[in-house]
């Protein structure tokens, strides 16, 4: 690692006006001071550990093709209507009359208006275009939003959890040291088979609550009554819900809410994150959005109310130059009639993969959640999740994700992703059958 070093040398001043010839000492050399909170982060990231084990297996077994069903990356091509919109926008950039330079950091009006109309108004949610901020990923937004809150805010985070929620709060200094699998200062919301992987309300006072439904990693969903309890709790206790709905498009049950704004009062207590990554295959293209309603307020050190919308707008415009124009045109095409048909087919493909995996696993005696309203299957394996990972890799050459990497409550579970080709899913099931078939 390269460190920036500043050296202060002993020098001799001679013939300087008003000074005698003398030697003066400057402070001794030092290196730049780091953010010590980064040192509390665990040494390796979950998916880098997985990659190391898979690479070692591949090196030892070069003739055995590995089927990767761990990371939630899409495999199917972008919808044709999105590709055509992308190409047309690139052609616009080649003509001086239609060329565009910097666009609005919050997103072009054509995309924000389409999102408001089709993603919210159509479902009875009162969300205005100017409350929508287009970005390059919901991962980025869910990580960055914590910057606008005091380091003294106390956070409640589910366990198991998408690591970004936890790690970014560690980086910001809202936690103590890591011990026995958890950070001091965090209120953990246990998600277990007993509560359907939908956590109970916190018994302690908290300021910020992270929720994700359909959940990553468990694939669990929250009912309308579940979300109403959370919204009522947040409003009664002046807490803010950060609601990650990146997988909302995969909900198949019409009774399951796809937005927290379907719940009365949520505009007063919730921010929502959404993405085009999984429903339209934009993981390599990058486009998402965050909704910050005008009603949301915080207070400064003097107790003065401050709109969170204004703070997020300032942060967004200061640190972000906006999503590329062709990408936004491609995203807007998702909301066209043809775009809706194509993304429905895409989602249907992944959800059939999920159904095939869940049916096979349950037929072999495993208890699972997910796979019905989410593209992930969360499997109870009983013992060590890393041992199960190694067994699946070594005996079937199939990669899953160990639940222990998502938190203490993830131990005893693994996650399988339905983001894959049909051929790979069917082959993975046949490879696993002799290993786990009962």
Strand-helix topology:
Layout (H helix, E strand, L loop, with lengths): L4 E2 L4 E3 L8 E3 L5 E2 L14 H15 L6 E2 L11 H14 L15 H12 L11 E4 L2 H7 L10 E5 L3 H9 L6 E2 L2 E2 L3 E4 L17 E5 L11 H13 L3 E5 L25 E6 L12 E4 L5 E3 L5 E3 H12 L5 H9 L3 H27 L4 E3 L5 E5 L4 H12 L1 E2 L1 E2 L10 E5 L4 H15 L2
Parallel strand pairs: 5-19, 7-10, 7-11, 11-12, 12-13
Antiparallel strand pairs: 1-4, 2-3, 6-14, 8-9, 13-14, 15-16, 17-18, 18-21, 20-21
Short description:
This protein has helices at about 45-60, 80-95, 110-120, 140-145, 165-170, 225-235, 310-320, 325-335, 335-365, 385-395, 420-435, and strands spanning about 5, 10-15, 20-25, 30, 65-70, 130-135, 155-160, 180, 180-185, 185-190, 210, 240-245, 270-275, 290, 295-300, 305, 370, 375-380, 400, 400, 415. The chain is of the alpha/beta class and about 450 residues long. The protein folds into two domains: about 40-75 and about 340-435, Alpha-Beta Complex (Aspartate Aminotransferase, domain 1), CATH 3.90.1150; about 80-335, Aspartate Aminotransferase, domain 2 (3-Layer(aba) Sandwich), CATH 3.40.640.
Give a verbal description of the structure.
With 438 residues, the protein is an alpha/beta fold. It has helices spanning 46-60, 80-93, 109-120, 138-144, 163-171, 224-236, 308-319, 325-333, 337-363, 385-396, 422-436, and strands spanning 5-6, 11-13, 22-24, 30-31, 67-68, 132-135, 155-159, 178-179, 182-183, 187-190, 208-212, 240-244, 270-275, 288-291, 297-299, 305-307, 368-370, 376-380, 398-399, 401-402, 413-417. Helices cover 33% and strands 16% of the residues. The strands form seven sheets. Strands 6-14-13-12-11-7-10 form a seven-stranded mixed β-sheet, sandwiched between helices. The chain has a four-stranded antiparallel β-sheet with strand order 17-18-21-20. A hairpin with a 2-residue loop joins strand 8 (178-179) and strand 9. Helix 3 packs parallel to helix 8. It is globular, with a radius of gyration of 25 Å. Residues 1-17 have low confidence and may be disordered.
């Amino acid at each position: 690692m390269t460190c920036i070093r500043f050296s202060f040398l002993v020098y001799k001043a001679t013939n300087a006006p008003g000074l005698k010839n003398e030697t003066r000492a400057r402070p001794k050399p030092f290196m730049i001071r780091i953010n010590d909170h980064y040192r509390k982060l665990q040494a390796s990231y979950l998916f880098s550990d997985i990659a190391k084990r898979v690479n070692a297996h591949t090196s030892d077994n070069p003739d055995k093709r590995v089927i990767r069903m761990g990371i939630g990356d899409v495999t199917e091509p972008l919808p044709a209507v999105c590709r055509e919109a992308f190409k047309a926008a690139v052609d616009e950039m080649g003509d001086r009359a239609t060329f565009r330079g910097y666009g609005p950091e919050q997103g072009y009006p054509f995309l924000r208006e389409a999102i408001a109309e089709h993603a919210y108004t159509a479902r009875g949610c009162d969300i205005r275009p100017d409350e929508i901020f287009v970005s390059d990923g919901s991962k980025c937004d869910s990580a960055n939003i914590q910057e606008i809150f005091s380091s003294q805010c106390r956070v409640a985070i589910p366990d198991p959890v998408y690591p970004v929620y936890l790690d970014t709060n560690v980086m910001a200094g809202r936690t103590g040291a890591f011990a026995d699998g958890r950070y001091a200062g965090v209120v953990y919301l246990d998600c277990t088979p007993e509560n359907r992987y939908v956590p109970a309300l916190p018994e302690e006072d908290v300021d910020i609550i992270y929720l994700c439904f359909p959940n990553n990693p468990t694939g669990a969903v929250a009912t309308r009554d579940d979300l109403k309890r959370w919204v009522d709790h947040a409003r009664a206790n002046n807490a803010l819900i950060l609601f990650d709905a990146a997988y909302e498009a995969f909900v198949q049950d019409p009774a399951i809410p796809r937005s927290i704004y379907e719940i009365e009062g949520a505009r007063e207590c919730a921010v929502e994150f959404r993405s085009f990554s999984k429903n339209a295959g934009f993981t390599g293209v990058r486009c998402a959005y965050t909704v910050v309603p005008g009603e949301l307020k915080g207070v400064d050190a003097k107790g003065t109310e401050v709109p969170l919308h204004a703070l997020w707008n300032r942060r967004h415009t200061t640190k972000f130059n906006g999503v590329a124009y062709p990408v936004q045109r491609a995203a807007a095409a998702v909301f066209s009639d043809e775009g809706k048909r194509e993304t429905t087919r895409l989602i249907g493909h992944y959800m059939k993969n999920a159904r095939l995996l869940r049916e096979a696993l349950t037929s072999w005696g495993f208890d699972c959640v997910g796979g019905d309203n989410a593209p992930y299957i969360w499997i109870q394996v009983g013992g060590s999740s890393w041992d199960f990972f190694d067994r699946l890799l070594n005996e079937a050459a199939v990669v899953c994700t160990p639940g222990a990497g998502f938190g203490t409550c993830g131990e005893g579970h693994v996650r399988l992703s339905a983001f894959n080709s049909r051929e790979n899913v069917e082959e993975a099931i046949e490879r696993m059958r002799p290993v786990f078939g009962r």
